[in-house]
Amino acid sequence: MTAGADEFDVVVIGAGPTGENAADYAVRNGLTAALVEAERVGGECSYWACIPSKALLRTGHAVAAARRLPGVRAALDPAAVLARRDEFVHDLDDASQVEWAEGAGITVVRGTGRLDGERAVRVGDRVLRARHAVVVATGSVPVRPPAEGLDSVHTWGSREATNASEVPARFGVLGGGVVGCELAQAFCRLGSRVTLVDVGSRLLPAAEAAAGERVAAAMREEGIDVRLGQGLDAVSPGPGGAVVLHLGDERVEVDALLVATGRRPNTGDLGVDTVGLEPGKPLAVDDSGLVDGVEGGWLYAAGDVTGRAPLTHMGKYAARIVGAAIAARAQGAPLDTGPWGEHSATADHAAVPQVVFTDPEVASVGLTAARARDAGLPVRVVEIDIAVAGSSLHADGYSGSATMVVDTEREVLVGATFVGQDVAELVHAATVAVVGEVPLARLWHAVPSFPTISEVWLRLLETYRSNAAG
């Protein structure tokens, strides 16, 4: 077959949430766009990550929350949870996502897209040519540790775990990051006996120390065997398809082993070498999404593939910036690339929000105390228990913490972390405060409603003022 050629203003490789947003914002601004996808339109988040994992977690959290209140009897039906998960991922059918894209004026191209020189993307025998820009939004892929025997047994990645058709009686988790913690708790509440192993000294090492400590304590309380500071020496096959974990002198058998030891940008088989870049490396970009080291100003990237802020919502944010920047450049319009400008992904540096959907939840934004100090900022840290009328009403025995990191020179918030039941909705207020660089003197006048958990904001500010006065 002779290679054909199709021209679009913008060609986007990868149709996850990041790629969808890049294409959508290009089209909204008057450009034509092709969206290339090898698997399912909607990407990792929709089918194998954010959506199914939260569907697996939600019922267990609701049951646990109900049991913290008198007068409620609650039980969990694992089969119903798995069925609800299937509904959220549409049984892995992306027809509705394709319908949305085509309805938005985006051309969907099925197949594996690879760069093929300047402004060209090869999809099988077809070559798509971009008049203005190619956007890479290929996300990330799992990293496997060099554990002896790991390749001799069948393991789960996050995809297999989030799309499991049954609940293993014994579930092993290798890795104490977000994926490991969330899925360990999900399967524990679905009925698995869970063993989590991590070589680090605490769970969720990127978060404030209190977050990992509280999550580990909660997991242990509900029966998860959390083993920190312990590497996996080896893995071997066990009887009946089991997997044997070699932990020092101890052997632990599990029926399924989740390997959740991190991810890396997906550039290994992308054809980046055809434009002078090194395969397997993240695509370094400026704040408008332009890839460094490529002449002509036509190659952009957004999302996990850049290594900047590997979260779905941050990828979508970067994609909106990229789509608008491409359109502005194509139309000869001026760009606003200064800090917090229309075409500048400034939040990647200063205001990345994240929620870890464990129970307790961990909701954070901006810098941790350690990162703020490493950046040379003069900071004061306030850490208090969440103990207000709203939390007491929310659950008997409510336990949580709130941490505020303040730049004392400017008297503005640069980071905040909340740990506790149902704290996820607290983080956006902190995000607004960080992005807006709201002075603490003005934040004092943002009065929290009573009786809500948000009243912890008042307690944080009172504690900060008290310490300052002292």
What structural keywords apply?
alpha/beta, 21 strands, 5-stranded antiparallel beta sheet, globular, 470 residues
Give a description of the structure.
The structure is a single chain. With 470 residues, this protein is an alpha/beta fold. The chain is built from 15 helices and 21 strands. It has helices spanning 17-28, 43-48, 50-67, 78-88, 95-103, 158-162, 178-190, 209-221, 312-330, 347-350, 369-374, 389-394, 427-435, 440-443, 456-469; strands spanning 4-13, 33-37, 107-110, 113-115, 120-123, 126-136, 140-142, 170-174, 193-198, 225-228, 234-237, 243-247, 250-254, 256-259, 263-265, 299-301, 353-356, 361-366, 379-385, 401-407, 412-420. Strands 1, 2, 3, 4, 5, 6 and 16 form a 7-stranded mixed beta sheet that branches. It has a 5-stranded antiparallel beta sheet with strand order 17-18-21-20-19, sandwiched between helices. It has a 4-stranded parallel beta sheet with strand order 10-9-8-14. A hairpin with a 4-residue loop joins β17 and β18 (361-366). The chain is globular and about 65 Å long.
